[in-house]
Specification:
In chain A, 34% of the residues lie in helices and 26% in strands. By secondary structure, chain A is α/β, with parallel strands linked by helices. By secondary structure, chain B is mainly alpha-helical. The chains are: A alpha/beta, B mainly alpha.
């Protein structure tokens, strides 16, 4: 675990006079879950946009496997194996599981004008991959994605990213819109991905979900790193305080 | 909702057929046919010439309705087809009938016009992100006026005759027992449409573009290219129909195609295509077009005043839109829980 898969050093990002990120440094290790915590507006989304190549930083350096990199587009990041699953997942509800799984990278058979989709392979692989992710309720690859629950859709999106070679997976608020049981499914997926040696960046403002799986934590506040610590070094209450920026949050919680 | 290991099987074959988006339109087409067989059968609806009548009408509509339907599945709309039909027919008629230019040249010009209009529509939609409804409405008017103005200016009339279309006569104007060759072209295009939608990557991208534009883009689908392809396919089909009409009916008319502007979209919606995009099928569009043909010719055979045709079509459209929503809901319920 000496060499981080990705390392950001002193990364800043300014929009005009507004400094969204101020000299943030973060390390992402393979086989570990790095939790990115922070309240709304803390700079979480700017940071993941930089990591996934959507936004270019105005300062600092990014290293991937020890080599400095500059992402000109999300495509550059994808080619290195950086996958991103957005909160809205980006699936197409009215087409099937198999069609969604391979969207944009469809397997084909045949030649020339007779080149056609390999539906058989697509169905088989899609079902295998989501079953491996622990989704046991989906047995029919022709089932429309719109019939799946929110947690199952997250799992499908994660399985897809991993199948297409993601070594670093950025999950943007994967549990935010889910109920308790559904969130538990997604947390389980995240653990499975970690067991495979994938580096995960888990963005959330839910400290409980973060504490349940995180190996290392970065708390952002107003674009700066408020704290960085390892698993077990802080209690949930301390983390909540850090996220809220003081004592008030604990007071609010206790009053409830 | 819990995730558990359960022996829930794949939905049965009848269940799949029922949930397919073309099942409703097929049922409706059969019902419409039976209705007019009863009310108009005695006056010749069921005869060979009666059958040829509604199939001929459906074929010319259907050649445009198929790509219109695919475009609607991709989440866009094209109201410019009417003018392309008229402009293509007048180009061929003025070029070959009036000036005596070779038909190969004028027919190619008509196809080029189709490619041009489709590219123009796609360019504006992709660049400006304006709704295709307004973009193609504008191009429909631009082209309608230009076609009318130019044909009057050049030939002195908006209706120009075309006596001999050379090698295109057998290709576009053959008739057998009253059935026009346009029916063959329609079915060939339907086969192509089914192939594209079910068996090619483009088909997957069409569904994705209309179903979730951002999701499709993030998954690497070239959404602008998908739209460009479909806008061009639509306009070229309209140009094909315009050329076919000029050759088959021996005259080109600059304003003849305006009926197609809404008829094609109606046929697609009756055929189960969702107006909001992302859902539909080519067989459904074909059945929807057949319904349009059966109703518009069937009413004639009943002996009832044909003034009521539009009312009939309008009612059908309302029923179709409501049924489509129910079918989509049913498709999304299938597999959810075990209800």
């Amino acid at each position: 675990m000496n060499q981080p898969l990705m390392r950001l050093q002193g990364v800043s990002c300014a929009f005009g006079n507004n400094l969204a990120l101020d000299s943030v440094s973060i390390e992402v290790q393979p086989g570990e879950i790095t939790c990115l915590l922070g309240d709304n507006g803390a700079g979480k989304s700017t940071l993941i946009k930089i990591m996934s190549g959507v936004q270019r930083p105005t300062g600092g350096t990014i290293e991937f496997e020890g080599r400095p990199v500059r992402f000109e587009s999300p495509r550059d990041a994808q080619l290195l194996g950086i996958g991103t699953v957005h909160q809205d997942v980006g699936l197409i509800p009215l087409i099937s599981v198999a069609r969604n799984f391979f969207l944009g990278s469809e397997p084909t058979i045949g030649w020339g004008p007779f080149r056609r989709l390999d539906h058989g392979a697509a169905r088989r692989i899609a079902l295998e991959q989501i079953a491996e992710m622990g989704i046991r309720r989906v047995h029919d690859a022709d089932q429309l994605v719109g019939t799946m629950s929110g947690g199952e859709r997250q799992a499908l999106a994660i399985a897809r990213a991993l199948y297409f070679g993601a070594r670093l997976l950025i999950l943007d608020e994967p549990t935010a819109a889910l109920g308790v049981k559904e969130a538990a499914i997604v947390i389980d997926q995240i653990k499975r991905a970690r067991a495979k040696g994938v580096a995960l960046v888990f963005i959330t403002h839910n400290a409980t979900h973060a504490m349940a799986v995180g190996d290392r934590f970065t708390v952002l506040m107003h674009g700066r790193v408020a704290a960085q610590f390892l698993k077990g070094e802080k209690t949930r209450e301390q983390v909540l305080d850090l996220m809220a920026g003081g004592e008030q949050y604990t007071a609010m919680e206790l009053a409830d | 909702m819990t995730i558990e290991t359960s022996p829930a099987a794949r939905p049965s074959a009848p269940g799949r057929i029922f949930a397919a988006s073309w099942f409703g339109p097929l049922l409706a087409a059969i019902l419409m046919y039976l209705f007019f067989a009863v009310t108009g059968g005695g006056k010749g609806f069921l005869t060979v010439s009666g059958t040829a009548g509604w199939l001929n009408t459906a074929a010319e509509l259907g050649i445009i309705a198929i790509p219109i339907g695919l475009l609607m599945i991709a989440g866009e709309f094209d109201l410019s087809t009417g003018s392309v039909v008229g402009a293509a027919s007048i180009i061929v008629a003025v070029g070959t009938g009036f000036y005596g230019l070779p038909i190969a040249l004028t027919a190619s010009a008509a196809v080029l016009l189709g490619i041009g209009v489709g590219s123009f529509n796609a360019f504006l939609v992709n660049r400006t992100r304006l709704p295709s409804f307004i973009v193609t409405l504008a191009s429909n008017f631009l082209l309608a006026g230009s076609a009318l103005g130019l044909s009057r200016l050049i030939a002195g009339s908006s209706n120009v005759s075309l006596k001999d279309a050379g090698f295109l006569e057998p290709v576009l104007a053959t008739k057998a027992y009253g059935f026009n060759i346009s029916i063959v072209w329609w079915l060939l295009e339907a086969l192509l449409g089914i192939w594209v939608l079910q068996q090619t990557r483009l088909g997957n991208w069409i569904f994705a573009t209309g179903g979730n534009l951002d999701g499709a883009r993030r998954a690497g689908v070239p959404v602008s290219r998908v739209k460009l392809t479909l806008f061009i396919w639509t306009s070229v089909s309209a140009a094909f129909v315009g050329t076919l009409q000029a050759v088959a009916y021996n005259s080109g008319n600059a304003v003849s195609g305006q009926g197609y502007v809404f008829q094609t979209a109606i046929a697609a919606v009756i055929g189960g295509v969702l107006l909001t995009g992302g859902f539909g099928s080519v067989p459904g569009i074909v059945f929807g077009t057949m319904i349009y043909g059966i109703v518009s010719l069937g009413l004639f055979y009943t002996g009832w005043p044909t003034d009521w045709l539009a009312t009939f079509i309008g009612g059908l459209l309302v029923v179709a839109v409501l049924t489509n929503n129910l079918l989509r809901e049913a498709a999304l319920r299938r597999g959810r829980g075990r209800s």
